[in-house]
Amino acid sequence: MVRRTIAAGGILVIVILLVVAFRGCLDARKETAIKDYVSESTELARQSALQGDSLFNDLLSGPGDQGQAIDRENAVNALRVESATLVDRANDLDVPDETSDAQRYLVESLELRRDALAAVADAIPGALADQERRESTNAISSVMQVFLASDVLITARYLPSLKRDVSDEDLEDEVTYPRARRLEFVPDIQWVEPSFVADQIEGIRTGEGASGTATPGLHGNGLGTVSLGGVALVPGGSATVPLSDDLAFDVQVVNQGENNETDVTVRVTVGRGDDAIDVEDTIDAIAVGEQQTATIPLGSQPPTGQNVPINVVVEAVPGEEKTDNNEADFTVIFTS
To answer: Would you list the DSSP string of 179-209?
Structure first.
């Protein structure tokens, strides 16, 4: 009898341990799924915001060359296709139940951007033509409110909801988020003003500067020193950098023009192709002759033990004509 009691107790202990282990495994899988969703969904939102940078800063901003109108039309159509692809990718995400609200806001925002880009793509040929350009320009102006609504969904609904979900699971210290500003599609509130949009379109159509694009005088920034984790990088050279959780680029930018500059974007690309890591930061303001440093966390882990190409670019500001000193290439060997 005693032996049977001991055996039964042993079996009970084993069952309890199995149940505890099984629950622990489920919890670990849930935490991993949430962290993966945060990483993948914020990356889609960031890629969408980069499409906004391309649309507003490159394709809808004057002045331009009337002979390049077809190129701009093709580029806007390409963004249209890319935005639809982002919606498909968002719908294909593996979404934990805990993040279902955040997922809904994300998809709705990306759908708004997709639909608005389609409207811009349809209207841009007429806006850049000599006939019916006013009606087409008005059509482009009207969809700016849609882009703005998508920004509200991203910054005031998706991101706060995602952060609440992560906090509820006590995972705040294990995930990182891009700044809300980096997920916005519209770079400046003046784009919702029909007169400003009309000025930009007219600047492209005629090849003349649109009002508000740049103040008179020389504009331009230059790329200064670049370091990664305290290791100085030399253009064309190679450096060895140990990987760490808080590894970040320090990119120095120098205002070499005659005007104060604002919203200067610095982009870093680590690697090439589909596996490349793209990170960026924006310097709010740089006075004439001043130096500012953009600190840009690496975020993802690159391959180790091999030469990894790195490209650093200081994006041109409105009115900047000389850009040959805005970019440099480096090589880094990451060690674990």
So the answer is: -GGGG-S-S-GGGGSHHHHHHHHHHHHHSSP
**pLDDT at position 212:** 45
Q: What are phi and psi of 92, to 5 degrees?
A: -90, 0
The domain boundary, picked from 160, 180, 206, lies at 206
Is residue 9 a part of any domain in this protein?
Answer: no
181 and 255 share one domain: no
Could you give the CA distance from residue 323 to residue 288 in angstroms, rounded to a whole number?
A: 17
Contacts of 297 (CB under 8 A, 6+ apart): 176, 246, 247, 248, 249, 279
Supply the pTM of this predicted model: 0.58
The enclosing domain of 330 has a CATH number of 2.60.40.10
Angstrom distances, CA of residue 165 to CA of 29, 68, 97: 16, 47, 10
**Does an H or E element contain 263, and which?**
strand 261-270
pLDDT greater than 90 at residue 173 = no
